[in-house]
Amino acid sequence: MKIAIASNGNTLESTLDLSFGRCAYFIIYDSESKAMEFIPNPNRDLEEGAGPASVNIIASRNTNKIISSEFGVKIKPLLDSLKIQMIVLKEPTKTIQQIINMLNH
Amino acid sequence: MSPRIKVLRKVLSPPIIKGFKPYGLQAGQQHPEVVNLLYEEYEALRLSDYDKLNHHQASIMMGVSRPTFTRIYGSALQKVAKAMVEGRQISIEGGKVYFDSDWYQCSNCHCYFNNPQKDIVVENCPLCGHDQINQFDFANESEDDHPTNCEDFCVCPGCGFEKKHRFGDPCNQQTCPECNHLMIRKKSTDPKKQKN
Ligand SMILES: [Zn+2]
Ligand SMILES: [Zn+2]
Ligand SMILES: [Zn+2]
Q1: Is the distance from CB of B113 to CB of B59 less than 8 angstroms?
Q2: What is the ipTM of this complex?
Q3: CATH of the domain at A48
Q4: Looking at beta carbons, which residues of chain B come within 8 Å of A72?
Q5: What is the radius of gyration, based on Cα positions, of chain A?
Q6: Are residues B74 and B24 in the same domain?
Q7: pTM exceeds 0.90
Q8: Which of A34, B16, B109, B190 is most exposed, with minimal Cβ within 10 Å?
């Protein structure tokens, strides 16, 4: 199972980014192999369409879930149609390490 | 935008019927061609004339722009009128739609999540694994569950904006004043309401 986390940095001490489409990094976590991939978000500075472009990146990695503190209004239809689950966590202080620990419950 | 991702319109749930048949036609008058009402056209009629949403609210519900909504709605009316006047059958099928997935909240870590795999029953929080999860029941927010001194809040899953829930106003017909997202119910932490 691959899970994407919208992160504001590329370390385990980074925290959840406030935006999915414009987050600094996507962290792709593989819950079986425990492998992690840090992908710099090329859509950070897009004026429009950052959300859908970011969904594309996530979908190309065969991700099943996305964790973010916010998803733009147009994202849910796309993710629903791709059967990618949205997890909205309103805790901007949570670090990537803490989130991964939660996933490893 | 990549061509891989198609723009889809959100439909809350599929219609309960596959179509309509006219009756009272004289023999041989049956029009051979049926009128095909697309799912999004059915949904536009439902939101606008059954649920009585205005076009702005309805367009947000379907995840389309307001001009697109107006075009879909216009096409729906035209097809229904055509079927009635010409005595044609209506079949409701097809279209670029997906059926909206439901929202849940975990009582342990307080995350919100949806369930796009509709055929799988949600039992545990996808984040922390806890089994105390509550579903936001959009469709049947029945009035019996709502004491007049309702302690609930509507919350925006997009930006977290909260406001006091108003009795009798379904959350999913409220749009967030901050970001225009549709609101959902924030369940009160009353332990009686939680699943065991
Ligand atoms: Zn949880
Ligand atoms: Zn909002
Ligand atoms: Zn409400």
Answers
A1: no
A2: 0.91
A3: 3.30.420.130
A4: 158
A5: 12
A6: yes
A7: no
A8: B16
